[in-house]
Amino acid sequence: MRFDRFLSAAVTRPPAAVFQVSYSCGLDVVRDLGRHGVPMLALDPDPAAIGLRSRYAAGRVCPSPLDDEEAFLASLETLGAELPQRAVVFPSHDEFIWPLSRHAERLAPWYIVPFSRWDVMAKVHDKRAQMEAAWRAGVDTPKTVFVSSGAELEAAAGEIRFPAVLKPVESLAFKLRFHRHILDVETPAELQRIYDKVDDLGVLILQERIPGGEDELWTVGSYLDAESRPLAVFTGHKLRQYPHAGGSCLAGVSRWDDKLADAALRLQQELRFHGVSQVEFKRDPRDGRFCLMEVNARHWKWHGLAARCGVNLSYAAYRDAIGDPYIARRQRDGVKWIVANKDVPLALLEIAKRQRSAPEYVRSLRGTRMDGLHAVDDPLPGLLNAGMVAKQILTRAPRARADV
Fold it and tell me: Of 316, 152, 153, 308, which Cα lies nearest the Cα of 222?
């Protein structure tokens, strides 16, 4: 969509702006709102981001708040002066959420921020505050100890059963360094070696590792209004992720669970949260308890499945933001979501290595109704990503043969 067409549409209906559209998370916000006729603006620091090419949005490159937060905010002010009316903002990643939350009042002349201000977001940002809120709300968690210094490490190791996981209270620096949200720790001796690599990242969380594989992970996605009342709620079951021990979703299915939804809503209401969020749990196969893994104060990678099942979180947030709230209907169960560009090549590789059964994988695809990147009504972003994946495979293959 050209920018002038976007501006014309935004005269008669409040527009929406989505920040970071390089993958399915931001791309599906664009599609979930664009299909309802909302004038969409897609913004990303990367000019190659696939969401900038969506037919549902006008694409623009913006500064990265990680590199220069003030430049990012100033660019929004400049852009806001061009808009015919205020735009509802939808950040798809933490690095965009935090500055928009902190500076919502500064941006208020041009933008509507449909989520909590920094006094609440700071508690969601802080994984320790998440855990403490869960305990107050009666939500199950793994056995957890906080480690703020090397002196506390030995005592913490004595309280936790191994294998364990180590993760940060403040996640962004940790993720940038390790490209993962958690680190696995098999023994107390390994804990000391790992801690030497992370002791400069502030308070850390040492947790018992809940047994079971990736298919024990569940998600509650929701939109809560400014009074923390749920207007849209979805529960889903993760089927595959990569890396398998702790990665991002490759396949999931819609499955409603009342107790799971209730636990997530109790936690968010304890935090007085407003906005779209994902609360992830892992089911403990030893006793069936759903233990809190984390709260993300934003959309997540496979939230598009919720919209496909009748629970459009983005549209619920948009409608509430413009003063026309509605309550989403109950979800349809059994609908599967996949990222074929990544899931299929990885599955074929594992089948070739005899790490996965081909018939079992084919059976797992039954009921798939949605791809996180490919869409018939918006084909270009998925095709661009498929091209990137093909290029990666072709460039790595000769290197792999040379290493043999």
Answer: 316
Q: How many CB atoms are closer than 10 A to CB 263?
A: 23
Ranges in the chain, pLDDT < 50 = 399-404
- Which positions ≥6 away from 38 have C-beta within 8 Å? 13, 14, 15, 16, 315, 318
- CA gap 265, 323 in Å, rounded: 23
pTM over 0.85: yes
Architecture, CATH, for domain 3-113: 3-Layer(aba) Sandwich (3.40)
Contact criterion met (CB below 8 Å) for 1 and 30: no
Q: Which CATH superfamily is domain 214-379 in?
A: ATP-grasp fold, B domain (3.30.470.20)
Q: How high does pLDDT run on average in the chain? A: 93
What confidence score (pLDDT) does residue 86 get? 98
Q: What's the rounded Cα separation, in Å, for the pair 346 and 106?
A: 45
Distinct helix (H) and strand (E) counts, the chain:
16, 16
90 and 17 in contact (C-beta within 8 Å)? yes
Strand partners, 275: 224
Token pair for 64 = 């990265």
For the segment(s) 143-208, the CATH number from 3.30.1490.20, 2.60.40.420, 3.40.50.720, 3.30.70.120 is 3.30.1490.20
Please list the residue range(s) of the chain that carry CATH number 3.30.1490.20: 143-208
